[in-house]
Amino acid sequence: MANIELEMLKQEIDALREQMHAYMEYPEIFRDEILESSIKIDILINKYMVLTSK
Prior knowledge:
single chain, about 0% strand, elongated, Spo0E-like_sf, protein dimerization activity, HLH_DNA-bd_sf
């Protein structure tokens, strides 16, 4: 079950990274979206690290 959750977290992180790359083309327009995505990625990475350390 942990493997499934880890895989889902990886997929979410990858999707957010792709989204951020699109936003980076116009950072002055998408500043808030970039910040929000960055915070979400940080949270997901922290969850991933907690799960892998068990």
